[in-house]
Specification:
Elements lengths: L13 H26 L13 H23 L5 H33 L7 H25 L5 H49 L7
């Protein structure tokens, strides 16, 4: 008989917290999609809009789905432990695949347009977070899903797995906000340059 994920009673307000987190996460995804669609031209792979695939995929993968994966053990604490672990792992797999698509999109966009890769703080933070996320998933799979690790070894590693999972999620949020700030600064910089060109005297007509 499979053990349960946790027999501790759930806080009475937990369903409301979970519902709020899902509403907030979906709002972030919808807002990102609306921003890309209304103000950045939309999304496409074989065009200049390929870059827009990157922020949408990263928000869906490393913010929304990763957050849901962390909630699994709180929401399904009385379900069979193996079922909860499999769901936790699958959500991380989907998050990783979607984030990988976003990463490929931005590198492919840079290659097609002759732009340099990893030229900003956001770029380096993003690569660091992605690598840490992948390593965290591999180690977690090896310890908790792939048969072979002893119970004592799993027990010793579990606190580190929880700590690094929460840390990587917070780093993902920070990196996403850093990327949005970078996009805003680029946009404002272009607007400022255009305004300067409009207001500057034309030497040909002086």
């Amino acid at each position: 008989m499979e053990s349960r994920a946790s027999m501790a009673p759930a806080p009475r307000a937990l369903p409301y917290y979970v519902a709020f987190s899902q509403l907030l996460g979906l709002t972030v995804v919808a807002t990102t999609g609306a921003w890309l669609g209304l103000y950045r031209g939309g999304i496409a792979w074989e065009s200049a809009l390929q870059f827009n695939v990157h922020p949408l995929c990263m928000v869906i993968g490393l913010v929304f789905l990763q957050g849901d994966a962390l909630l699994v053990y709180r929401v399904f604490r009385n379900e069979a432990k193996r079922t909860t672990k499999v769901l936790h792992g699958l959500l991380h797999v989907f998050a990783f695949i979607i984030a990988l698509v976003g990463l490929v999109a931005v590198f492919d966009y840079h290659r097609k347009n002759g732009y340099a890769d990893l030229y900003s703080l956001h770029s380096w933070c993003g690569i660091l977070v992605f690598v840490l996320y992948f390593v965290q998933w591999l180690v977690g799979f090896s310890f908790f899903l792939f048969p072979g690790a002893s119970f004592s070894l799993r027990s010793r590693y579990r606190p580190q797995h929880i700590f690094f999972g929460a840390t990587i999620f917070l780093l993902s949020l920070g990196t996403a906000l850093l990327g949005l700030k970078e996009a805003l600064l680029f946009k404002l910089g272009k607007l400022g340059l255009s305004q300067n060109l409009i207001n500057s005297p034309n030497p040909l007509t002086a």
